[in-house]
Amino acid sequence: MRYAMAIDTKKCVGCADCVVACQTENNVPHGYSRDWIVENVAGTYPNLNMIFRSERCNQCNNAPCVRCCPTGASHIVEGGIVLVTHDDCIGCSACIEACPYDARYIHPDGYVDKCTFCIQRVDKGQNPACVDVCPTYSLHFGDLDDPNSAVSKALKGRSWYVLAPEAGTEPQLYYLT
Amino acid sequence: MIVSGRNIPGIDPYLNMWHWQIALYLFLGGLAAGILFFAAYFVVRGKEKEMPATVKWATIIAPVVLVIGLAALFSDLYHKLYFWRLYTTIRFTSPMSWGAWTLMLITPLSVVWVASYLKEMFPEWDWKFGFLNSFEKWVIKNRISFAWIMMILSIILGVYTGILLSAFNARPLWNTSILGPLFLVSGFSTGLAAIMWVSNNEHERRVLSKIDLIFIAIELFLIIHLFMGFMAGTAVKLEAFKLFLGGPFTVSFWVFVVLLGLIFPGVLEILELSGYHVPRWVPAFLILFGGLMFRFVMVEAGQITRFLY
Amino acid sequence: MKTRRQFIKITTVGAGAAALGLYSLKVSGLNLFESKKEEEPASDEEMTATPTYCEVCFWKCAGWTYVDKKGKIRKIIGNKEDPHSKGRLCPRGTGGIGMYYDNDRLKTPLIREMRKDGSQYFRKAGWSEALDKVAGKMKEVAGRYGPEAFGLFNHGTPGGHLEHLMRAYGSETNAEPAYAQCRGPRSAAYYATFGAFIGSPECTDIRDTRCMVLIGSHIGENMHNTQVQEMSAAIDHKATIITVDPRFSTAASKSTFWLPIKPATDIALILAWIHVLIYENIYNKEFVHKYTFGFDELKAHVKNMTPEWAYGITTIEPDLIRKTAREMAGFAPAVVIHPGRHVVWYGDDTQRERSLAILTALLGAWGKRGSLYLPEAVHLPRFPQPEYPKPKWGWKDLNERKFSLATMGITTEIMKASIPRYNYKHQIKAWLTGGTNLPLSMPDKKLFKEAAEAVEFIAVMDTMPMEVTGYADVVLPEATYLERYDFIRAAQNRIPNVALRMPAIKPRFDSKPAWWITKQIGERLGLHAYFNYDDYSEVIDWQLKQIGTSLEEMKTIGVKSFPRQSGPLYIGNGEDYEFNTNTGKVELYSTDFADAGFDPLPIYTPHPEPPQNFYRLIYGRAPMHTFSRTQNNHFLWDLMKENSVWVNPKVSSLWGLKDGQKVWLKNQDGITTSFPVKVRITERVRWDTVYMVHGFGHSDKKLTRAYGRGASDEEMITRVAEDPIMGGTGMRGNFITFIQENPEVKRKEDKA
Question: Across the interface, do C248 and A46 touch by the CB < 8 Å criterion?
Fold first, then answer.
């Protein structure tokens, strides 16, 4: 079982609904966000290209944040979701230094926090909050090992890329182009 | 560019989680590693009598700076009440875990080392308790073994900080295998500088000076190698290099670290060996200053470098 | 002697401020006074879900408000049965919680007082006193000038309650900025052409379209929820999207064709398209033959409006004009010619909308799948009450029926009628406002200020201390949509449906729902017959029972759909269909316009261009904000704290501007922005144009997050191009230049 997400850059309008939905669902403190929107513009007027990306923790298969954690607070659970056990975290920020995607942050309460693929929802068979709110239906989630899951279907026949593949992290967020 | 207004403290606009506490610890850790290594080394070589400061007096510095360094690290933690979790597990993939355990071993060891020499340094010293006197005798009897252990631990202490930083491949400036040896050599050099400053023995200082010059030369070689690697590397490595070539760290690195911290004291030491009189605190201070600046620069600059955007 | 009305920035008085300060620290997540344990995400089973429909913007998406066991609102989710939202709210709807928890909210009624030294301030008052004062003033105005002299500015559901009060009181002198400052020209144009309004939400069948043309719509930056969702579906179906915009908008980035048009030349492009359709014989002949009137006049009219002619005006290549016209024709009638929404640009906007309507008709893209469907709304019977009294005059009569084709009140006319020196036949003596922040939504601030100072009394109902409250004599704090009952939403759609809004939580502070406020005022005016209920839920329950459901049922489902009664969603092939126009057909040649003395067929008129060193200011939306309403909402403020002025790199290098640098803007009339704004250097905007997101530059200090952030585009809009047909205020004819030093500092230096 390998959870993953596909994000359709053709359709995303960068509205940041995913950011707000995550904050309300997961009680993220004001001033912090577990996901964010990136705008990429290329070219000169009027020959222009633009896409939006909704980014978050890539739940990497080869997660550097898990490898470098001195207490084992950062760990991977079944399905590949990377979690942080709050009471094991000492707040040393090594994992934050290790993440090529700047996906982690120190929560005001002292431990490290980040996107958890809304594991409390996934465990009940639901989608992460961002996936369920996206008004352009750009986010797809599911089990990559299941050919009938939403993410597998979204990837089928589409070209895609991942962020910073050269970092060797094997990220599980696939950006559809 | 991020357009959802993300402005997380410490993360945006660029990573700035680790500050002076980390840089200070890296410096103090390297310093202690250097002092303890040479103390142990000369004991193993049987040269205790000729190197009094190295083996005895300078080692007083080691536990002090280790405690200060640990205090700095502790103060940097954001979840302080849970710090003890470090010692409930050993994680071999995490250099920080090695470091935590190494410190856990080497700090008491350095205290024991100093304690075992207290009677030699302060003849009126009395332990007052019987078991302490027996313990002291036992340590002195097994001093060679202790020295070997301390040598190994101090090498780990000196090199792991560099490996820790270099393991973060998300930070292109740090992600080079040269960083480990570079930190080790730099740490040993600062240790030698501290010992030379404290030592009253002319012969001792000459020996250490010669060793130090070799280390300075190695350091310069590694630094050149480091930057050549950046120049020949990928786009992110070139970006990292630009920080030191016209970027905000140009002066602090080339002037304070390389010129004042390595080349100039090296020249002074050569002059001293050639017979000129150089006040001994000058090269020592410069090397220590250069070592501290080096860590500051690496910690700050490394966090600015990144893979994306 | 009448004293001038001072703009009072509402300040909290006394110890309350300290307590609120500490409270806001707690709520802002620092949790200094709570145990450090963070709250776990709440599971849906442990929360109570109450149905509501959103009031952050006008789309009114239905959703569920989730309140946890401790009584805290945790999230707002869309209602899956709702055709507006289909279960997914936009970021403002999801962040609507911020409206409830905003500690800068209005907390008590406020009454304007004057000190001995002449300065004015707000005093806290109880509801009885405030309501007595408003009702008293309404009686006084009715006695002296007649109830018609009391005007109303309104928007949204709060405005609806106020409108009911005013109708019962005897005044039809009301206007919404949403008409003359937004969609007015579209209403007049489409009504003249098709005999029908486009309405809200627009009846665009984007979901099934094969080709969508966007002029004056930036879907994706405006979060018109259903349209954004349906555009996404259209992209999946590989529909062609043609966007006409001087700026590389989000929609443009997803378009098959982007026409980077020179601003103010759109009519020329549309006329050239019409020319191509007619002269290449690719228009929808069946539709045109069966349903339209005036084709021959149109054909003669556009004879010389070739793509080459349009190229010289618009800078769009003739080949591209032809190609896009053919693309539309190829997919007809499954084409959406989007009528746009905020269409008040240059003063000839009704004519531009007419040209869009004509283009729509030539493609037969009306009442067909994939074009504009025939919407239907549930008809809600009115709660039993007497007929409204007939006023002696209303908004139509203010200026001797100058804008005879206007279908709603015109805000600028109400303002001018409030100022004696304009000498309008009917004078307005007092105002009531609700749901609209006039100082930031109206162009030409001088007019607003003069009018606000001229009237004898202003009462403002609002949830937040918006700038308009600074001009009020009485401020009435309204509860947010999460805390109140309101009208049943019965908006038009493919399938008629109703949505319930009920309170999810008690009103904070001393705020009250609009239905209660208006009922209290109405009772004091002796209008009990129009407010014959104790709680508004009685009205809702009665109305719902009339249409076959009940409050109890709606509380569990939130949204209920009903079968269509007006006929099918689309006009059948070859079906006879009568349009609600003079000729009974779609009027390509408008008889109404001809009768009223306006051009029956649109023509292109050139508009003023920016002088040297000036750039045309165009403005629009960002998907995380609504008008000037949301800049203080903590969730949405986190996403976008301030706007920026978009500058083309050629221009920025000319001026030596750096990305992120703060500049002041000065317009052609010498007005400078109160606050500086950040420069955003981007290729997405033309070199003769700058772009800003509307709604920032708040000047009321009580909006602690929004105050001073960014600059107000509205401040720069001092030159207004009045649409002669329906009074719309064209606002895109203003030009700005950059001031790199603080004008305040410069002024002081010049004085010294």
Answer: yes
